[in-house]
Write a structure and sequence with these properties.
Blueprint: H1 16-41, E1 59-65, H2 79-83, H3 91-94, E2 118-121, E3 126-129, H4 133-137, E4 142-149, H5 155-164, H6 174-182, E5 192-196, E6 222-223, H7 242-263, H8 266-288, H9 296-302, H10 312-324, E7 329-334, H11 343-367, E8 374-379, E9 383-384, E10 401-402, E11 406-411, E12 419-421, E13 451-452, H12 453-463, E14 473-475, E15 478-480
Parallel strand pairs: 1-7, 1-8, 4-12, 4-13, 5-6, 5-7
Antiparallel strand pairs: 2-3, 4-11, 8-11, 9-10, 14-15
Helix pairs in contact: 1-7, 1-8, 7-8, 10-11
């Protein structure tokens, strides 16, 4: 019976399809109304709501050294290699571990001592090669992890593993997980920024390394390039003023809102948010990337390359400026460490490009009072072999890929500064226990001092106040996380 005063009268007489269509529109309008105020002010809320425990670091600067730096020529002093230089690698040391196709067919596998001299530095007595005098100068700010290992033996899966927690492409990157879980500290800049050394060569870098995978696209990294246009297509075209751009975005957002009410697709929400972020970045990005505001003393600290856009040194300085502005995760990529030959000259060249700037970043953050809550991570995707690839000649020999043990170091952000953790055997080929005995590669355990990639990722998240087991995302019927179903927090790496 028709009753004009009945509260449900507007719904009476509707078909089932009309009822759900109207309900969807109402829910969509409600969701969008709650979304738009935060978008207007750039307030990206953290998914976690609150940290799992007190954080030791607020932000991360990850200095990824693509190619695989040779640990026994930089941080892992092995006089035995020099003593046995030229002798064959014993099978008792190799333990049947696979080699890459680049050296597996060599008639001999001769051990190769390091061409660099080593000395101990700092109160902790860290062994560091003469190739890295500037990093040696900040040894007491660093925690050297000498027992990192991975399963990946080739570059692409190994880099992907470090960056996403999986050797297979498609998972969210570490920066995307941080952005998803912790949110933004600056409404005018992306939460996750990527910098890469220009014209570095060697292994290619793919955008998926800083992608968001199955997370919302707003969590992916934003790459800043060297030159006048750090972000492509960010500047207004000729003839378009700021007010015109704003009016265009308002009209575009209205269209997107109408589409959202119809489709309820969350990616439309991300599209609105990204347009708004791009608008704000028109002002914030030129400001933060303008290194001319830095003093001569700062450029002297970072070295002469810091005045050349796109160099590792310039990117380190830019990373400090981004950290000051509240960017949560800053990822630097530097290629060129893949030394299958000519390792003597190759390491000298890479050290010249990276050593001073790395140490300068640590010193600069400490000077500004920011090192305590900024975590710096330095390392590659795997290490190098203790034997020579190719002819054992001081000027031409190289080292092949080696995933079973290598060194990564951290500084600031609550890490256990001035210490070294983990050890390798006398040959620098296997992780060793506290008595120096090589561990079985197939049975290495976290409790033995071995640090798997997932252990390192879990520890980095912990320093940021996040329990890696609780930062998850439901996708295709299961809960995913950065560390998959693995990983242990290494408490000895923290203060």
């Amino acid at each position: 019976m028709f009753d004009p005063d009945h509260p449900l009268q507007p719904l009476m007489g509707l078909t089932r399809r009309e009822f759900f269509a109207n309900s969807a529109k109402s829910l969509g309008a409600l969701a969008l109304s709650s979304l738009l105020p935060s978008l207007a002010f750039g307030d990206e809320k953290q998914i976690l709501g609150k940290l799992h425990h007190p954080a030791k670091a607020k932000r991360i600067i990850y200095l990824f050294q693509a190619g695989g730096p040779a640990q026994q020529d930089l941080f892992d002093y092995k006089p035995m290699l020099n003593k046995l230089h030229g002798q064959s690698l014993p099978e008792s040391v190799r333990k049947g571990q696979r080699l890459t196709a680049m050296s597996a067919n060599q008639s001999v596998i001769p051990l190769a001592g390091s061409p660099f001299k080593f000395a101990q530095h700092g109160h902790g007595g860290a062994w560091i090669s003469e190739a890295l005098p500037h990093i040696a100068d900040v040894a007491d700010e660093c925690c050297f992890v000498k027992s990192v290992f991975t399963e990946a033996i080739n570059h692409d899966p190994a880099i992907t593993f470090f960056q996403t927690g999986s050797e297979q492409a498609g998972r969210p990157s570490m920066g995307a997980w941080m952005s998803y879980g912790l949110g933004s500290m600056n409404q005018d800049l992306p939460t996750f920024v990527v910098l890469a050394t220009a014209n570095a060569g060697d292994q290619p870098l793919y955008a998926r390394l800083w992608g968001s995978g199955f997370l919302d696209s707003k969590y992916q990294g934003v790459r800043l390039r060297a030159g006048k246009e750090p972000v492509l297509y960010l500047s207004n075209p000729d003839g378009i003023c700021g007010s015109g751009r704003r009016a265009m975005l308002d009209k575009l957002n209205a269209l997107n809102r109408a589409q959202f009410e119809k489709e309820l697709d969350p990616e439309i929400e991300s599209r609105i948010a990204q347009y708004e972020m791009a608008y704000r970045m028109q002002t914030s990005v030129p400001d933060v990337t303008d290194l001319s505001k830095e003093s001569d003393e700062v450029f002297e600290l970072y070295g002469p390359d810091s005045k050349k856009p796109g160099t590792f040194a310039a990117n380190c300085l830019l990373a400090r400026r981004l950290a000051q502005k509240g960017v949560r995760f800053i990822q630097l990529y530097h290629q060129g460490w893949d030394h299958h030959g000519g390792i003597l000259g190759g390491i000298r060249d890479q050290a010249r490009k990276t050593d001073q700037a790395t140490a300068a970043l640590i010193k600069d953050l400490k000077r500004l009072g920011m090192l305590e809550d900024t975590l710096i991570v330095w390392g590659g995707e795997f290490g190098r072999t203790s034997y020579s690839q190719g002819s054992l000649d001081i000027n031409s020999f190289g080292r092949d890929h080696h995933p079973r043990c290598f060194t990564v170091f951290m500084a600031g952000g609550g890490c256990n500064a001035g210490t070294s953790y983990g050890r390798t055997d006398d040959y620098g080929y296997n992780i060793a226990d506290k008595d120096g005995n090589a561990l079985n590669p197939s049975k290495m355990e976290f409790t033995d001092g071995a640090v798997h990639v997932h252990d390192l990722q879990a520890t980095i998240l912990w320093l940021m106040g996040v329990d890696h087991k609780q930062l998850t995302y439901a996708y295709q019927g299961r809960d995913f996380r950065l560390t998959d179903v693995h990983g242990n927090v290494v408490k000895e790496l923290m203060k």
